Every structure is written in structure tokens, then in C-alpha cells.
């Protein structure tokens, strides 16, 4: 086990010493670099994928009584222990299989594994936040350990409660992405028609994407800044700012993809509306790629993450150039028609490239496969090759080859309309009020 320790600033150390004696390994990061496979149980195959879901980071047990027993009431310590133990057990049991795309079976409480684990995290977070309330030095007392998935280090431990908050938000977002994936897998209908994704599932998935993006946006803007710079630099790549931003942008990009599919199905939606949505989708995926392109994503899940973003970025460009070409073709000049042909040809090339990238993504471990085509790409897989061939033939019959533009026109730049939900960290649980605060103060001063 390779250990990397980061000391706190002298000011922080003086502040802490004035409250209580310095605990061992305070403010340190501990990473196991060698992947023995003991903790990272990865599935060989994850089934059908509509939404990229990173492997779940799994929390390891923590002894709150040993770390906090001298400073907190027994009630608070036992509550923290019970809430986190519930998460550890559920995540450890279901983590290796929860990203697989089978329908989640009902639990004894009538819910699903995804919903129950998410609810457990939501219950835990307000109690956990008591450790960081008003800058309390209790935040440094407990060493939290999580098993990574995308990082080279098998696990990462930090004696900082903000690391735990960050890990919880990341896991909450991951669970929502998994839920969205299940909703967006075509299901056979009772009438015997082709498998499809219902309108309700599409509508609900957009809400889920925005909620997941909200968790990730909160993690980047409000939680990461709470960690000392040394720890931020050495977070596992799963929690790197670039990865969190990319996942947020991916959620928004897939939300726009659903909106484009709805527009395609609507007789009222104009080509201009569809082009705008497709161009916005390109910007989301481009920004997602920009955020992770230089990060050391590895170990299966990381490489698969990078390939998914690359695939979806190219796929989005195919859609954007297709609709841009249709708009340009409405012009009455030879130049406009030439630009339209160039745009459609580029759309066709991107479409072909996206199919190759999709195959590479699915072949990357853990193995995956495409669900039956539906929505935006089902429509475009038929229209792009057909319309491109038709427009190229017609325009080249009318104009000389030399007059047809060989380079694609620039896509129009639209402001991004879809934003993450405004998520705020919950208030500290009432169990931390007056009587417990007094006990904490007396414990720290003794």
C-alpha cells in the first residue's frame, strides 16, 4: 500500500490544537495503488446501455465510536453509524450488479434497490453535515474510505468529512443515471409492436437528468471548494473536477437528445427548432469531452467513460450537420445548395464514424451492447444516408463538381438552454441542535 500524506496549513493546525489534541493522520489522503481485485468487483458485461453509468464507488466500514466517541453524544454516534452501515451493506451487495440493465427487483419495502439506496443516502447526508457545521474541527476526526472505479488507486481514504459529502453526492448522481438508463431502454409492448420507450419514460428521464446534473453541479461549486487544495489535487479521478463536470454535461446532453427526439415526433416542431437542439447537444458533448480528455481515465470504467463521450459527441455532430444542411438547402442560390450538400456529406461521415465508435465502446470492458434503435438515432439512421445521397445527386446534376463546397459550413452557435436543477445541500439534521452541540463543545474543551 502506497501512502500519500498531506499536512494542513499551519493556521489550520493551530486552530485545531486549540480545540483538541491532534488525531493521527489528520487531513491525510491514503490510497491503495495496487488493484488486487478484492474490493473492485466488476461485472464482465453490463447489458444494454443508453446512458453511461460509471461503476459505483463503494464505501467501506467506518468506526465512528472510536473516532468520535470522546466528542459526541452516544445518540449522534450511533445514528451516524447506523445510517452509514446501511449504505455500506446495500452498496456492497448491489454495487457490482446495479449498473446492469435488468429491471431492478422489488425489495421487502416495496421499492427498488436503486430507490432504496438513494433514499439511504438522502437520510445520511443531513446527519453527516453536522460534522462540518460552522467549520467544526470534527470534520477531520473520521477517516472515510471508498473503493474507486475509474482511478488507478483501488481505494482512497481521507480524514475529511467534505470528502465523504462529495462521495455521497457522486453516488447519488450515479444512481440517478442508472435509473435514467433503465427508463430509456426500449421495452416490448403488450400489443406486440416493436419495443419502444414510452412518452412518460422520456419525460421522466429528462427530470432525472436535470436532478443528477444538479447533484454534480453542487458538488463542483459548493463541496470541492471546501477541500484543501492538496486534497483536491489528489482526489481519485472518479471525483476529479473534470469528471464531475463531464458527467453533469453528459446528463444535460442526453436530456437535449430526448428533447430532440420529442421534436422529431412532433408535427409542429420546425427544422429550425430541431437544428437548434442538435447544435446545443454538440456543445454539451464537446464541453464534456474537453473536461476529461486530459484526465488519466483507466481501469475499464474510465476508458469506457472516455469512449462514450467521444461516441456521443460525434453522433451529436451528425445530427447537427444534418439539420443544418436541410436549413441551407432551403436557400435559392447555387452557393446555398452547395453548402447544404457539404453539410449533409459531413453529417453522413460523422454518422458512419459514430457507428464505429459505438462498436469500440461496446467492446471495451465491461462489455455492453446497444438497445434496439429508437428516438433521435432511429430516425437519423434512416434519414441521413438517404437524404445525403439524394441531395448530392440532385445538386451535382444541377451544378458542376467544382462548384460544390468540399468543406462543411460552420454550425450556428446557440446559447445552452438546459440547466441543472438548483440543488442545495440539506440543512443539518435537528439531532445536532442545542443539547448535542453543548456536549460536543464540552467534549472538545476537556
TrEMBL record:
<comment type="similarity">
    <text>Belongs to the BROX family.</text>
</comment>
<feature type="region of interest" description="Disordered">
    <location>
        <begin position="1"/>
        <end position="46"/>
    </location>
</feature>
<feature type="compositionally biased region" description="Polar residues">
    <location>
        <begin position="1"/>
        <end position="20"/>
    </location>
</feature>
<dbReference type="InterPro" id="IPR038898">
    <property type="entry name" value="BROX"/>
</dbReference>
<feature type="compositionally biased region" description="Basic and acidic residues">
    <location>
        <begin position="32"/>
        <end position="41"/>
    </location>
</feature>
<protein>
    <submittedName>
        <fullName>Putative BRO1 domain-containing protein</fullName>
    </submittedName>
</protein>
<dbReference type="InterPro" id="IPR004328">
    <property type="entry name" value="BRO1_dom"/>
</dbReference>
<feature type="domain" description="BRO1">
    <location>
        <begin position="50"/>
        <end position="446"/>
    </location>
</feature>
<dbReference type="Pfam" id="PF03097">
    <property type="entry name" value="BRO1"/>
</dbReference>
<dbReference type="InterPro" id="IPR038499">
    <property type="entry name" value="BRO1_sf"/>
</dbReference>
